Structure formats: C-alpha cells, structure tokens
Amino acid sequence: MSTLTYAAQALTGIPHDVVGLGASAPFVDNPTANFSDTPWWLHLVKALLVFVFLLINTLLVIWFERRVIGRMQQRPGPNRTGPFGLLQTLADGVKLALKEDLTPKNADKVVFALAPAIAGAMAFVSFAIIPMGPTVSMFGHRTPLQLTDIPVAVLLVLAVAGVGVYGIVLAGWSSGSTYPLLGGLRSTAQVISYEIAMGLSLVAVFLYSGSMSTSQIVGAQRDLWYVLPLIPSFLVYVVTMVGETNRLPFDLAEGEGELTGGFHTEYSSLKFAMFFLGEYVNMFTVSALATTMFLGGWQAPPGIAAINHGMFNHGWWGLLWFVVKLWLFMFFFVWLRGSLPRVRYDQFMRFGWKFLIPATLTWVVIASFMKASQLGFIHGPSVKLGNRQYPLLSVIFIVVLAGAVLLGTWLRDNRKIEQEAIRNTPPPEEIDPFAGGYPVPPLPGQRLREPSLVLAERAAGNATDKEATRG
C-alpha cells in the first residue's frame, strides 16, 4: 500500500480498499493499460496511424466547417473541387505550400522558424495518451487502441499544452513587428489563464475515478459516464477548451480590427500552415480529452452497450463510438463559430479569473465532500443527532454547502445594493474632459469645465504637493 493510500486512510478513516475507486472496488495504485504484447515496431505503426488519423480528420473538419457555416448563412460553401467539394481543403493546402515563404527583415530567423514547429508538434503529442478503443488484435498481437499510457497521463496533456504556449509567444516576439507581439502576449495570457480552470475542472474526475491514467478513467465510467454526476466540471471544461484553442467566440488573438492576424501575421506558406494545422489538431485533442474524461471514452452509449451482453463494447466497435463523440464536439465548435460574436478581451479575462476559477475551486471542494460523504455512509465516524446516527462527513458536507450558499447570497445582495447606489447617483453637471489623461466627451446634460479653471486647480494642487513633500 502506497504512502498516498495510508494518508487517505488516516485522514478519512476509510480502509484502503475503498479509497479511490469506491466501496466495491479494491484500490489500485494508478494502473495503466497493458502493453505487454505490443512489440516496438507495433508502437511505430500505431504512431503513424494516429498521425494519419489526425491529418485526415483535419482535412475533413475544415471542409465540414465551411459547409456547415455556409448552410447557416444560406450559401453553398465549397462545392466545386471533388465530389461535394471534399478536395477543396487539399487544394488549398497545396496552394498554401506553393506560396512564397517570406521572412521579415527584423525577425529573429532561427526563432521565427522554430515557433511554428513547436506549435504544430505539441498539438500531436497530447493525442498519444488518448484511448481510442479497447484491446484489439493487430498483426497477430493483442494491444490497446492507445499509443501509450502513464499513471499521470492527464497531467501530460496539461504539460504539453503549457509547452505549446512557447510557440505562440515566440512567434509574436520573433516577428520584429508590433501587432504580432501584441497578439502573442494576448494569446499567451489567454491560454495560460484558461489552463488553470481547465486543470481544476478535471480534479473532480480524478477524485471519482481514483486515477490519472486515461485508460483507467474510461474503465471507471463503465456503469455511469461522469458527465452526469460532474456536470459543473463538464461545463467549465467545455468553456475552457474553446478558450484554450483560440476559437470563436474567444479568438481574441486574431482580432482583425485590432491586431490584423495576431501572432502569425508575418507568417506565410508552410510556416503559417503549421499554426493552422496546430489549431485544428488541438481541437481534436481537447475534444478527445473531454470524451475520455466525461463521456465514457470509447464505450458505447448506455442503451447500445446493453445489447447482446455488451458486444458493441468489444473489438473495433470502440473506435466507432470514439469517433462519433469526437465529431459531436467538432460540430459544437463549428456551431459556436457560426452563432456567437467575438467577446471583448477584458470581459473574457475577467470571466476566467473572477468567475471560472473561483467557481471551479468551490465545485472541487463540493465534489470532494460528495465523494467522501458517499464513502462515509459505508465506513467512517458518525454523530448522533436526536435519536438517529448520521455519518460525520455528510454532516460536514451539508454545513459547508449551507455556509457557501449563505455567503454567496450575501455577496450577491451586497453587489446589488452597490450597483443600485451607483445608478441612483446623479452624474456631475461639470466634468474635466482630461481627467485621467484621456479626453472624455460629456454625457447628455453635462458641460465641460472651463480650461482656465482646470489649469488653475491643477497648478494649486501641484504646489500643495510640493509643500507637503518638503515638510
């Protein structure tokens, strides 16, 4: 039994056989998928298949996005190159590769070429730990439909996402231009901010599954997908995955009216294609992680999974269910782009720091008490209230939840009172147009103060400050 298990038993009073996976399952110290019958060359074959899978899906999703948005805007979309326009994306890729590759004069040439390589490569690495199906037979060997698995596989995804930020900030800095630099800084701040809420939204899944291994998280959802008991975590993750991928309505790094094209403004040809490819592969990666963490991974939907003793949960059927769930998220991305306008940058960052992160922290605490209370009904101390015995953890959970509700209600009422006081305060009749250093036009019913009076007051204030400093 590991140190973590002993600590959990000491803190909760729950025996080690129920810490982590629930009362009916023995505690397994972060197991991983079984690759004992997978030779090294089969790993290379699976890596090649994952790479081809992502490339083909990227070609399809670009065509799919253009067609769906075209229908939403009552126009046909690409329909000339190939049947139904399916080869349009391939033709655009060839055209992009044949364009002249320009490098700005003031750019740092080494970093300028390295940045898109980092952004593109990191997008593929995260997919290595995604289980795309159960154990199947390939070339005479039994192997999981997963490239690799480690005890902290989900943390690998978050770490790779953090490294991918370097591609963005280096692209903006190395271009030697103002707008790419601003776009790189803006996008980096956005991605880092929403990675925090994304990581916190996954903590509840770790608590319920008892593991950070993606294969074990999928296995723990055999009876119940985590999207139902952990719906707040799922909703937060969906918001953060859109912000993480710089997609509308959160594509603030590419605000055409402000930054032209953001951090990749100065890029062309294949270097620009790497950023474009990385964005779409990232969409598949975050969607695959959402499928794995909340929608049962490769497992069939509950009704279909019960048919014929679960025959649709074996073999290559799992890959079908995984791809279907993946493309449901792709449609969600496209639907958002065709429906919602771009939000303002300060509103977006305020939403992430002041709402998502505190709300997710609160939910993690609630989910921890829910899990502990669930186990506390079976094992653990209890308290006597009246003539009945209640599990101690359940009582603590109810008290903390009630306190959080009362605190939230009190804060909301205070905010309403402050906002009402601001609304009822009449605006001043005279204003200083240069207060704060920026010219401000008057509101209806207001008038500007005389410039001579403003200058006299400022001179008097400066003189007072100097006297105070001398004293």
Can you tell me about this structure?
The chain has 471 residues and is mostly helical. The chain has 3 domains: 32-365, no CATH class; 377-424; 430-470, no CATH class. It is built from 16 helices and 6 strands. The strands form 3 sheets. The chain has a two-stranded antiparallel ribbon with strand order 1-2. Strands 3-4 form a two-stranded antiparallel ribbon. Strands 5-6 form a two-stranded parallel ribbon. A hairpin with a 2-residue loop joins strand 1 and strand 2. It comes from Pedococcus badiiscoriae. It catalyses: a quinone + NADH + 5 H(+)(in) = a quinol + NAD(+) + 4 H(+)(out). It is found in: Cell membrane; Membrane. It is a multi-pass membrane protein.
